[in-house]
């Protein structure tokens, strides 16, 4: 995931009907990102690798998001869902980076496409428009003050911080393009 999470396109969070008492949530990258633990056909991230059994009051959705971030820092090539990505990562890092950059470019090109879902709650991205977005951004970035003391802001910025990894080789790969 390069400079920010949106550069990988959209991620669909699939919450099972028996949540939180049953299966773990699923994360699906649309379109699929070239990575050893992401299914190259469906775009699904192998979440069960980190959460073999989902446990209520122990496991939380934010942990799945942290795991999604971690996979781009610590690439696991054992038992891959995408064998080609695993082999290239181990044997031809330059080609791996190239294919990753191509998949990210495709994601970026499709970022503003409407979701392929009839779900009225699906998130739709739009290009930055200062007249629409600037005031919301300023509000999120403004420190909250309680009784004259600044406090940690736990609103959208916290989630944004979770979703903005910058692995070292991704940024340089994108600059080459």
From TrEMBL:
InterPro entries found in the cross-reference section: UBC, UBQ-conjugating_enzyme/RWD
Domain UBC core: residue ranges: 1-109
PROSITE patterns (alphabetical): UBC_2
Protein name (database record): AKT-interacting protein-like
Native species: Lingula anatina
Gene: LOC106162454
């Amino acid at each position: 995931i390069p400079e920010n999470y949106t550069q990988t396109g959209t991620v669909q969070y699939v919450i099972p009907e028996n949540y939180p008492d049953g299966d773990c949530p699923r994360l699906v990258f649309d379109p699929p990102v070239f990575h050893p633990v992401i299914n190259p056909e469906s775009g699904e991230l192998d979440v069960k690798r980190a959460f073999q059994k989902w446990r209520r009051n122990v496991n939380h959705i934010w942990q799945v998001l942290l795991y999604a971030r971690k996979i781009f820092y610590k690439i696991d090539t054992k038992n891959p869902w995408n064998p080609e990505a695993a082999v290239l990562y181990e044997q031809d890092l330059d080609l791996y980076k190239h294919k990753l950059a191509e998949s990210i470019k495709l994601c970026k090109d499709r970022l503003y496409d409407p979701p392929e879902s009839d779900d009225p709650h699906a998130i739709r991205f739009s290009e930055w428009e200062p007249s629409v977005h600037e005031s919301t951004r300023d509000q999120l970035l403004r420190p909250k003050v309680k009784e004259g003391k600044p406090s940690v802001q736990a609103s959208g910025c916290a989630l944004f911080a979770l979703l903005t990894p910058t692995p070292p080789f991704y940024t340089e790969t994108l600059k080459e393009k």
